[in-house]
Amino acid sequence: MNYIIGALPLVIAAVLDCLLGDPYSLPHPIRLIGKLISKLEAIVRRKWSSDLRKGGVFLALTVILISVSVPLLILIILYSISTWLGAAAEGVMCYYLVAAKCLRDESMKVYHAAEKNDVEGARKAVSMIVGRDTAVLDKEGIIKAAVETVAENTSDGVTAPIMYMSFGGAVLGAFYKSVNTMDSMIGYKNEKYADIGRFAAKLDDVLNYFPSRLTALAMVVTAPFIGLNCRDAYRIWIRDGRKHASPNSAQTESACAGALGVQLAGDAYYFGELHKKEFIGDPKRPVENEDIRRANRLMYASSALVFAAALAVRCIIVGGILC
Protein backbone atom coordinates (compact mmCIF):
# COMPACT_ATOMS: atom_id res chain seq x y z
CA MET A 1 0.00 0.00 0.00
CA ASN A 2 2.83 2.41 0.85
CA TYR A 3 4.35 1.89 -2.58
CA ILE A 4 1.04 2.67 -4.26
CA ILE A 5 0.78 5.94 -2.33
CA GLY A 6 4.32 6.76 -3.38
CA ALA A 7 3.70 6.06 -7.05
CA LEU A 8 0.22 7.57 -7.32
CA PRO A 9 1.13 11.28 -7.77
CA LEU A 10 3.55 10.57 -10.63
CA VAL A 11 1.13 8.18 -12.31
CA ILE A 12 -1.71 10.71 -12.07
CA ALA A 13 0.57 13.39 -13.50
CA ALA A 14 1.59 11.22 -16.45
CA VAL A 15 -1.97 10.16 -17.25
CA LEU A 16 -3.38 13.69 -17.03
CA ASP A 17 -0.59 15.10 -19.19
CA CYS A 18 -1.16 12.44 -21.85
CA LEU A 19 -4.91 13.08 -21.85
CA LEU A 20 -5.17 16.83 -21.31
CA GLY A 21 -1.85 18.54 -21.94
CA ASP A 22 -2.06 22.18 -20.86
CA PRO A 23 -5.60 23.48 -21.58
CA TYR A 24 -5.42 27.25 -22.12
CA SER A 25 -8.90 27.63 -20.63
CA LEU A 26 -7.70 26.56 -17.18
CA PRO A 27 -5.58 28.64 -14.79
CA HIS A 28 -2.02 27.30 -14.83
CA PRO A 29 0.39 27.57 -11.86
CA ILE A 30 3.36 28.17 -14.15
CA ARG A 31 1.59 31.12 -15.78
CA LEU A 32 0.84 32.46 -12.29
CA ILE A 33 4.52 32.12 -11.41
CA GLY A 34 5.32 33.99 -14.61
CA LYS A 35 3.03 36.85 -13.59
CA LEU A 36 4.63 36.92 -10.15
CA ILE A 37 8.08 37.15 -11.74
CA SER A 38 6.97 40.04 -13.96
CA LYS A 39 5.50 41.99 -11.05
CA LEU A 40 8.53 41.43 -8.85
CA GLU A 41 10.84 42.40 -11.70
CA ALA A 42 9.09 45.76 -11.98
CA ILE A 43 9.39 46.29 -8.22
CA VAL A 44 13.06 45.31 -8.17
CA ARG A 45 13.91 47.63 -11.05
CA ARG A 46 12.39 50.51 -9.07
CA LYS A 47 13.72 49.67 -5.61
CA TRP A 48 17.13 48.21 -6.52
CA SER A 49 17.94 50.23 -9.63
CA SER A 50 21.45 50.89 -8.30
CA ASP A 51 22.16 47.22 -7.51
CA LEU A 52 20.12 44.89 -9.72
CA ARG A 53 22.20 41.86 -8.77
CA LYS A 54 21.04 42.08 -5.16
CA GLY A 55 17.54 42.81 -6.38
CA GLY A 56 17.72 39.72 -8.57
CA VAL A 57 18.60 37.58 -5.56
CA PHE A 58 15.61 39.00 -3.68
CA LEU A 59 13.38 38.36 -6.69
CA ALA A 60 14.52 34.76 -7.07
CA LEU A 61 14.27 33.87 -3.39
CA THR A 62 10.81 35.45 -3.12
CA VAL A 63 9.51 33.56 -6.15
CA ILE A 64 10.94 30.29 -4.82
CA LEU A 65 9.51 30.85 -1.33
CA ILE A 66 6.00 31.53 -2.62
CA SER A 67 6.11 28.77 -5.26
CA VAL A 68 7.14 26.18 -2.67
CA SER A 69 5.08 27.38 0.31
CA VAL A 70 1.70 27.30 -1.42
CA PRO A 71 1.75 23.63 -2.51
CA LEU A 72 3.46 22.61 0.73
CA LEU A 73 0.74 24.13 2.92
CA ILE A 74 -2.05 22.72 0.76
CA LEU A 75 -0.55 19.23 0.84
CA ILE A 76 0.04 19.32 4.61
CA ILE A 77 -3.66 20.06 5.10
CA LEU A 78 -4.92 17.49 2.58
CA TYR A 79 -2.61 14.68 3.70
CA SER A 80 -3.72 15.29 7.30
CA ILE A 81 -7.31 14.72 6.19
CA SER A 82 -6.65 11.66 4.04
CA THR A 83 -3.54 10.07 2.57
CA TRP A 84 -5.44 9.23 -0.61
CA LEU A 85 -6.80 12.77 -0.90
CA GLY A 86 -3.32 14.19 -0.43
CA ALA A 87 -1.81 11.82 -3.00
CA ALA A 88 -4.53 12.65 -5.54
CA ALA A 89 -4.07 16.40 -5.04
CA GLU A 90 -0.31 16.02 -5.29
CA GLY A 91 -0.81 14.13 -8.55
CA VAL A 92 -2.74 17.07 -9.99
CA MET A 93 0.00 19.46 -8.84
CA CYS A 94 2.65 17.26 -10.45
CA TYR A 95 0.63 17.19 -13.67
CA TYR A 96 0.91 20.97 -13.95
CA LEU A 97 4.70 20.70 -13.75
CA VAL A 98 5.11 18.36 -16.74
CA ALA A 99 4.73 19.62 -20.31
CA ALA A 100 5.26 16.65 -22.65
CA LYS A 101 1.95 16.88 -24.51
CA CYS A 102 2.11 20.67 -24.66
CA LEU A 103 5.61 20.48 -26.15
CA ARG A 104 4.45 17.95 -28.71
CA ASP A 105 1.27 19.84 -29.61
CA GLU A 106 3.01 23.20 -30.02
CA SER A 107 5.85 21.77 -32.10
CA MET A 108 3.39 19.86 -34.28
CA LYS A 109 1.68 23.15 -35.12
CA VAL A 110 4.97 24.08 -36.78
CA TYR A 111 5.03 20.69 -38.51
CA HIS A 112 1.52 20.99 -39.94
CA ALA A 113 2.07 24.56 -41.16
CA ALA A 114 5.38 23.63 -42.78
CA GLU A 115 3.77 20.57 -44.36
CA LYS A 116 1.39 22.94 -46.17
CA ASN A 117 4.31 25.22 -47.13
CA ASP A 118 2.71 27.90 -44.96
CA VAL A 119 5.98 29.55 -43.95
CA GLU A 120 4.30 32.48 -42.19
CA GLY A 121 2.07 30.13 -40.24
CA ALA A 122 5.05 27.97 -39.29
CA ARG A 123 7.02 31.06 -38.29
CA LYS A 124 4.18 32.25 -36.07
CA ALA A 125 3.84 28.79 -34.50
CA VAL A 126 7.55 28.46 -33.77
CA SER A 127 7.67 31.97 -32.29
CA MET A 128 5.43 30.67 -29.50
CA ILE A 129 7.99 28.09 -28.35
CA VAL A 130 11.39 29.70 -28.96
CA GLY A 131 13.12 32.75 -27.53
CA ARG A 132 15.04 33.73 -30.66
CA ASP A 133 13.89 36.18 -33.32
CA THR A 134 11.93 34.23 -35.92
CA ALA A 135 11.37 36.93 -38.58
CA VAL A 136 14.71 36.10 -40.23
CA LEU A 137 14.15 32.33 -40.36
CA ASP A 138 13.45 30.50 -43.61
CA LYS A 139 11.52 27.22 -43.71
CA GLU A 140 14.53 25.08 -42.84
CA GLY A 141 15.49 27.45 -40.02
CA ILE A 142 11.97 27.27 -38.63
CA ILE A 143 11.98 23.47 -38.65
CA LYS A 144 15.43 23.38 -37.06
CA ALA A 145 14.29 25.78 -34.32
CA ALA A 146 11.33 23.52 -33.54
CA VAL A 147 13.54 20.42 -33.36
CA GLU A 148 16.02 22.21 -31.08
CA THR A 149 13.21 23.33 -28.79
CA VAL A 150 11.80 19.83 -28.47
CA ALA A 151 15.28 18.46 -27.76
CA GLU A 152 16.19 21.05 -25.12
CA ASN A 153 12.80 21.09 -23.44
CA THR A 154 12.69 17.33 -23.16
CA SER A 155 14.85 17.94 -20.12
CA ASP A 156 13.59 21.35 -18.93
CA GLY A 157 9.90 20.66 -19.46
CA VAL A 158 9.55 16.93 -18.90
CA THR A 159 12.33 14.80 -17.43
CA ALA A 160 13.92 17.29 -15.02
CA PRO A 161 10.60 18.00 -13.23
CA ILE A 162 9.96 14.24 -13.08
CA MET A 163 13.39 13.65 -11.54
CA TYR A 164 12.87 16.29 -8.89
CA MET A 165 9.35 15.08 -8.16
CA SER A 166 10.67 11.54 -7.67
CA PHE A 167 12.70 12.80 -4.70
CA GLY A 168 10.49 15.55 -3.29
CA GLY A 169 7.06 15.29 -4.89
CA ALA A 170 5.16 18.35 -6.06
CA VAL A 171 6.97 20.65 -3.63
CA LEU A 172 10.46 19.95 -5.00
CA GLY A 173 9.00 19.95 -8.50
CA ALA A 174 7.55 23.42 -7.88
CA PHE A 175 10.93 24.58 -6.62
CA TYR A 176 12.58 23.42 -9.84
CA LYS A 177 9.91 24.89 -12.13
CA SER A 178 9.97 28.26 -10.38
CA VAL A 179 13.72 28.53 -11.02
CA ASN A 180 13.41 27.25 -14.58
CA THR A 181 10.62 29.72 -15.32
CA MET A 182 12.72 32.59 -13.98
CA ASP A 183 15.61 31.50 -16.19
CA SER A 184 13.37 31.50 -19.27
CA MET A 185 12.06 34.99 -18.44
CA ILE A 186 14.99 36.88 -16.95
CA GLY A 187 17.99 34.62 -17.46
CA TYR A 188 19.25 36.29 -20.64
CA LYS A 189 22.86 37.45 -20.86
CA ASN A 190 22.06 40.82 -22.41
CA GLU A 191 22.25 44.35 -21.04
CA LYS A 192 18.68 44.31 -19.75
CA TYR A 193 18.85 41.05 -17.81
CA ALA A 194 22.54 40.34 -17.15
CA ASP A 195 22.36 41.59 -13.55
CA ILE A 196 18.78 41.05 -12.44
CA GLY A 197 18.66 37.53 -13.87
CA ARG A 198 22.17 36.40 -12.96
CA PHE A 199 21.29 34.56 -9.74
CA ALA A 200 18.29 32.76 -11.26
CA ALA A 201 20.30 31.75 -14.34
CA LYS A 202 23.17 30.36 -12.25
CA LEU A 203 20.77 28.46 -10.00
CA ASP A 204 19.03 27.01 -13.06
CA ASP A 205 22.41 25.84 -14.38
CA VAL A 206 23.03 24.01 -11.10
CA LEU A 207 19.58 22.40 -10.97
CA ASN A 208 19.76 21.20 -14.57
CA TYR A 209 23.31 19.84 -14.48
CA PHE A 210 22.44 16.22 -13.74
CA PRO A 211 18.95 16.07 -15.31
CA SER A 212 20.21 17.32 -18.68
CA ARG A 213 22.95 14.70 -18.80
CA LEU A 214 20.74 11.86 -17.61
CA THR A 215 18.16 12.84 -20.21
CA ALA A 216 20.78 12.87 -22.95
CA LEU A 217 21.83 9.39 -21.83
CA ALA A 218 18.18 8.29 -21.94
CA MET A 219 17.97 9.59 -25.51
CA VAL A 220 21.02 7.55 -26.47
CA VAL A 221 19.59 4.40 -24.86
CA THR A 222 16.11 4.72 -26.37
CA ALA A 223 17.10 5.95 -29.86
CA PRO A 224 17.43 2.47 -31.47
CA PHE A 225 14.00 1.43 -30.20
CA ILE A 226 12.34 4.13 -32.32
CA GLY A 227 14.48 3.68 -35.42
CA LEU A 228 17.09 6.35 -34.69
CA ASN A 229 20.88 6.15 -34.52
CA CYS A 230 22.16 5.17 -31.08
CA ARG A 231 25.86 5.20 -31.98
CA ASP A 232 25.80 8.70 -33.48
CA ALA A 233 23.59 9.95 -30.65
CA TYR A 234 26.31 8.94 -28.19
CA ARG A 235 29.19 10.16 -30.37
CA ILE A 236 27.72 13.62 -30.98
CA TRP A 237 26.61 13.94 -27.35
CA ILE A 238 30.15 13.31 -26.10
CA ARG A 239 31.68 15.55 -28.78
CA ASP A 240 29.22 18.47 -28.87
CA GLY A 241 27.53 18.34 -25.47
CA ARG A 242 29.43 21.41 -24.26
CA LYS A 243 29.01 23.56 -27.37
CA HIS A 244 26.77 26.12 -25.73
CA ALA A 245 27.15 29.11 -23.42
CA SER A 246 24.99 27.19 -20.96
CA PRO A 247 26.60 24.07 -19.46
CA ASN A 248 23.37 22.14 -19.99
CA SER A 249 21.50 23.29 -23.11
CA ALA A 250 23.63 21.37 -25.62
CA GLN A 251 23.38 18.06 -23.77
CA THR A 252 20.02 16.86 -25.08
CA GLU A 253 20.33 18.91 -28.27
CA SER A 254 23.55 17.12 -29.21
CA ALA A 255 22.13 13.67 -28.43
CA CYS A 256 19.06 14.47 -30.52
CA ALA A 257 21.15 15.83 -33.41
CA GLY A 258 23.22 12.65 -33.46
CA ALA A 259 20.18 10.40 -33.25
CA LEU A 260 18.55 12.21 -36.18
CA GLY A 261 21.74 12.58 -38.21
CA VAL A 262 21.37 16.34 -38.69
CA GLN A 263 23.18 19.53 -37.73
CA LEU A 264 21.49 21.87 -35.26
CA ALA A 265 22.28 25.18 -33.53
CA GLY A 266 24.50 27.79 -35.21
CA ASP A 267 24.10 31.57 -35.17
CA ALA A 268 20.78 33.05 -34.06
CA TYR A 269 19.25 36.47 -33.44
CA TYR A 270 17.90 37.42 -30.00
CA PHE A 271 16.25 40.81 -29.46
CA GLY A 272 17.69 41.98 -32.78
CA GLU A 273 21.25 41.06 -31.82
CA LEU A 274 23.24 38.31 -33.57
CA HIS A 275 24.58 35.64 -31.23
CA LYS A 276 27.40 33.51 -32.61
CA LYS A 277 26.96 29.84 -31.76
CA GLU A 278 28.77 26.68 -32.71
CA PHE A 279 27.03 24.04 -34.78
CA ILE A 280 25.95 20.84 -33.07
CA GLY A 281 25.95 17.55 -34.97
CA ASP A 282 27.10 16.57 -38.44
CA PRO A 283 25.26 17.76 -41.59
CA LYS A 284 24.71 14.26 -42.96
CA ARG A 285 21.51 15.51 -44.55
CA PRO A 286 19.37 18.66 -44.50
CA VAL A 287 16.87 19.10 -41.70
CA GLU A 288 13.41 18.06 -42.90
CA ASN A 289 9.92 18.52 -41.54
CA GLU A 290 9.67 14.89 -40.46
CA ASP A 291 12.47 15.57 -37.97
CA ILE A 292 9.95 17.38 -35.76
CA ARG A 293 7.98 14.14 -35.45
CA ARG A 294 11.16 12.15 -34.88
CA ALA A 295 12.29 14.55 -32.15
CA ASN A 296 8.93 14.16 -30.44
CA ARG A 297 9.18 10.38 -30.56
CA LEU A 298 12.62 10.63 -28.99
CA MET A 299 11.22 12.97 -26.35
CA TYR A 300 8.50 10.49 -25.40
CA ALA A 301 10.81 7.46 -25.48
CA SER A 302 13.49 9.03 -23.29
CA SER A 303 10.86 10.51 -20.97
CA ALA A 304 9.25 7.08 -20.55
CA LEU A 305 12.58 5.61 -19.48
CA VAL A 306 13.18 8.44 -17.02
CA PHE A 307 9.62 8.11 -15.72
CA ALA A 308 10.08 4.40 -15.04
CA ALA A 309 13.28 5.08 -13.09
CA ALA A 310 11.66 7.98 -11.23
CA LEU A 311 8.70 5.81 -10.30
CA ALA A 312 11.01 3.24 -8.77
CA VAL A 313 12.88 5.92 -6.81
CA ARG A 314 9.63 7.46 -5.60
CA CYS A 315 8.26 4.13 -4.41
CA ILE A 316 11.46 3.34 -2.51
CA ILE A 317 11.63 6.77 -0.85
CA VAL A 318 7.96 7.08 0.14
CA GLY A 319 7.64 3.40 0.95
CA GLY A 320 10.64 3.66 3.27
CA ILE A 321 9.32 6.80 4.97
CA LEU A 322 5.85 5.37 5.55
CA CYS A 323 7.28 2.11 6.86
Automatic annotation (TrEMBL):
GO terms for cellular component: plasma membrane. The keyword Phosphoprotein does not apply. It is a multi-pass membrane protein. GO terms for molecular function: ABC-type vitamin B12 transporter activity; threonine-phosphate decarboxylase activity. Keywords: Cell membrane, Cobalamin biosynthesis, Membrane, Transmembrane, Transmembrane helix. The chain crosses the membrane at residues 57-79, 298-322. InterPro entries: Cobalamin_biosynth_CobD/CbiB. It holds the Pfam family CobD_Cbib. It is found in: Cell membrane. Pathway: Cofactor biosynthesis; adenosylcobalamin biosynthesis. GO terms for biological process: cobalamin biosynthetic process. Belongs to the CobD/CbiB family. HAMAP family: CobD_CbiB. Converts cobyric acid to cobinamide by the addition of aminopropanol on the F carboxylic group. This is Cobalamin biosynthesis protein CobD.
